[in-house]
Amino acid sequence: MSDVPLDAPSPCPGTQSDLAGKASACEGCPNQSLCSSGQARLPLSQREPDTILSIKRRLGSIRHRIIILSGKGGVGKSSLSVCLARGLSRRERSQVNGSNETYRIGLLDLDFCGPSIPCMFGCMDEKVHQSQSGWSPVFVTENLCLMSMGFLLPSPDHPVIWRGPRKNTLIRQFLTDVAWTEEESNLDQGTNLDFLIIDTPPGTSDEHLSVVQYLQAAECLDGAIIITTPQEVSLCDVRKEIDFCRKLSIPVLGVVENMVEFVCPTCKHICPLFPSFTGGARSLSTMKHNENADDPSFPDLEIIGRLPLDPRLTRALDEGLCPFELAESNSFISQHSKNPDGGLQSSDTVIVSFQELFNNLLERLRK
């Protein structure tokens, strides 16, 4: 990765240069004092060793840590995060003592200015409590818990008017202080999370830089899922997001194309909402998000899901309901058969699309 910070002005001499923090181009740069002191030359693990150790202690035992990214706002990033959390928490992970266990999921909402996760789970009145182990996340089911800025606000309508440094401080606190696992108690390792899903705001800003650099320094990031819609106005920003991942060496687990089509609930006619004149998400599969194409740690971009727009999904998220329970109650489901993984077989577009997404993601993580 380049030693030029992504938020540095041009031309930047680089953090490893003798002119770092001293050149005329450094005037006004937010990193000037750090560079001039020589601290910027040190890796993050040496600049903030206690923070990195705390992150490792909190997140190191979680099986998979996935960040959700989108270059464009309004493409369904938070909706995808919620559906991933809801759907994976309903899937069977193993059989213990004769009973089927489902995945244990944590969802971290880093969209500080628009924390919509509490609304989508119907728990906007919940508050975060301090325990002996740290901040206790809000549990919506016994195997699904949340942490969001929305739980810290005095009211849902209260705005967050913060500059970057305050956001970075809260990100660090979320990563070091939230007690996602029960490793500090006397319970066994079976209580640890299987997935931590991290929802982020649109773009490539302070929040993204901070969380990625902290997670990478602590070796606690499996990769990113990038979501887009089919139209070119979204794809333009997604290409920037892919380049962001390449520059920061973030493995892209897959691309999800959202709002691909609308299925009429009356006649079942399928209508494409956003005609993909430039190829849609499939055009992204030809991009390399890693300069070294032979590196097995960075496989080619792959579309792991294509999701429809469904009014039931919108209704479920607005009302804080589980979208899959709502879809199943109104779909043509064979009650006598199940898929090998325990999921219901269905002709319902929403259920089938998300089942395919979950299967592809789990397969991607096994590679």
UniProtKB/TrEMBL annotation:
- An example molecular function term from Gene Ontology annotations: ATP binding
UniProt entry keywords in alphabetical sequence? 4Fe-4S, ATP-binding, Iron, Iron-sulfur, Metal-binding, Nucleotide-binding
Q: CDD domains, per this entry?
A: Mrp_NBP35
Q: Which GO terms describe its biological process?
A: iron-sulfur cluster assembly
What InterPro entries does the record tag this protein with?
Mrp/NBP35_ATP-bd, P-loop_NTPase, YlxH/NBP35
Pfam families for the chain: ParA
Q: Name one GO cellular component term.
A: cytosol
Q: Which HAMAP family does the entry mention?
A: Mrp_NBP35
PANTHER family recorded for this chain?
CYTOSOLIC FE-S CLUSTER ASSEMBLY FACTOR NUBP2, NUCLEOTIDE-BINDING PROTEIN NBP35 YEAST -RELATED
What this protein is called in its record is: Cytosolic Fe-S cluster assembly factor nubp1
